[in-house]
């Protein structure tokens, strides 16, 4: 009888620890987010820039340096938007098109990346602060690592190309600027 009581008490102590143990999907998400953070990506849960969506969604941000802001654009997967928006490539439409055309190498690399992204990647956005991917985190860290070079290239190529240049950027060729 004492053994039954001891076993019952041990099960009572162990069972809450089993509930706190992360599930397989939580471990996969942890590895995915660790891969992203180790690559310099900021991961947050925020409201996505989609109409009629109020739930939080993971966003992965590649920040631009504060002195070299990026252009503003917003690409949305066809399933999340209407036919009235201008098509960028099959499957993706501009909700906000950049004011200045993207350089040809950036345009090509962006097209190739969009074609490879998983179906749950619904928005690719750039603003003054960062290049951002909004997606459902359907893949693991190893697969996500395949996109890191493309996003790093895009961030580097878009950085310093704001829609509205700052006064300092406008005066880059100013001869008085070298004396400061």
Strand content: 15-25%
> Which H/E pattern describes the elements?
HHEEEEEHEEHH
The biggest beta sheet is recorded as:
7 strands, antiparallel
Strand arrangement across the biggest beta sheet: 1-2-7-6-3-5-4
Low-confidence stretches: 174-180
Structural class: alpha+beta
**Over the alpha carbons, how many angstroms does the gyration radius reach?**
23 Å
Protein name: Preprotein translocase subunit YajC
Question: How would you briefly describe this protein structure?
Answer:
The chain is built from five helices and seven strands, in the order ααβββββαββαα.
What distinguishing features does this structure have?
180 residues, 7 strands, alpha+beta, Preprotein translocase subunit YajC, 5 helices, disordered C terminus
């Amino acid at each position: 009888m004492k053994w039954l009581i001891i076993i019952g008490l041990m099960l009572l102590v162990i069972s809450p620890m089993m509930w706190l143990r992360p599930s397989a999907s939580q471990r996969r998400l942890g590895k995915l987010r660790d891969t992203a953070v180790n690559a310099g990506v900021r991961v947050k849960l925020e409201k996505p820039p989609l109409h009629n969506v109020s739930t939080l969604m993971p966003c992965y941000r590649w920040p631009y340096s504060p002195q070299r802001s990026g252009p503003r654009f917003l690409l949305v997967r066809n399933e999340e938007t209407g036919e009235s928006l201008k098509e960028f490539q099959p499957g993706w439409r501009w909700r906000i098109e950049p004011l200045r055309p993207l350089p040809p190498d950036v345009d090509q690399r962006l097209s190739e990346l969009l074609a490879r992204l998983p179906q749950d990647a619904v928005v690719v956005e750039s603003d003054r602060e960062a290049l951002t991917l909004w997606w459902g985190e359907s893949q693991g860290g190893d697969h996500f690592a395949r996109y890191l070079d493309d996003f790093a290239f895009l961030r580097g190529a878009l950085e310093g190309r704001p829609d509205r240049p700052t006064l300092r950027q406008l005066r880059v060729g100013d001869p008085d600027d070298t004396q400061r």
